[in-house]
Amino acid sequence: MPQPPAGTQVVQRVGHLLxxxxxxxxxxxxxxxxxxxxxxTKPTVHRLLNSLAAEGxxxxxxxxxxxxxxxxxxxMGSAAASRFPIEEIAHPSLVRLAASTGESAFLSMRRRNExxxxxxxxxxxxxxxxxxxxxxxxxxxxxxxxxxxLAHLDEAEQEEHLARLDLSGNRxxxxxxxxxxxxxxxxxREVGYVVNPGRIVEGSWGMAAxxxxxxxxxxxxxxxxxxxxxxxxxxQKELGRALLLEAHRVSRRLANQAE
Length: 259
Fold this sequence. Notes:
InterPro entries: GAF-like_dom_sf (IPR029016), HTH_MetabolicPath_Reg (IPR050707), Tscrpt_reg_IclR_C (IPR014757), Tscrpt_reg_IclR_N (IPR005471), WH-like_DNA-bd_sf (IPR036388), WH_DNA-bd_sf (IPR036390). The protein is α+β, with helices and mostly antiparallel strands. The chain has helices spanning 8-22, 31-38, 42-54, 71-81, 86-101, 144-151, 155-164, 178-191, 233-258, and strands spanning 58-60, 67-69, 104-111, 114-121, 137-139, 194-196, 204-212, 218-227. It has two domains: 8-78, Winged helix-like DNA-binding domain superfamily/Winged helix DNA-binding domain (Arc Repressor Mutant, subunit A); 84-258, GAF domain (Beta-Lactamase). It is built from nine helices and eight strands. It is globular.
């Protein structure tokens, strides 16, 4: 077997740490929490954090000791955003969805075998679901966005992702089963959008529709989330139509921009 490139392990560890700090959603994260989440030793995590801080990629709050993304990450993110204008293009659709439905609207992107929430627009309905927020990551097949994307992949690729899913220990919710996920995917292939019935947090429902790139690959998704009583069968068709309309608008704009 070929040997991995020199430094691969360090890069993987740094990437893992940066993702964990990013997922803290602006609240910062403690050293001990990073040790627990990464499985690395405390001296290793401490050394890597200080090295990243020296490069401006991370900052530590002196009073709380929590770690946050640094200014250099903002610069890098701004540069990357110019290559991936999806947030600018999709934001008007999020605003329209939130305004017309009253539910919270989200944009998520696919990255390899997971989805990452990029944007959120709060609806007017006072009771909200807090399953999704900027930076939240789920494996494909978990959460409405990942289900919507998975539903539009070919069967072989679907099975490849489903085989990776670890549903043990209720880590992704108490109602997650492969049979249920397959049933949701099959239904989505019929109607074009996903209905996710409170599988991550009981009583917190979601619906999503996939956004396609110029090569017709499902790479992003628009999601609406809320409480179960707001997602009754009679309203699902209305919400589904709204999601499909906005997802089509975003897909079309992305295709036109690439021309």
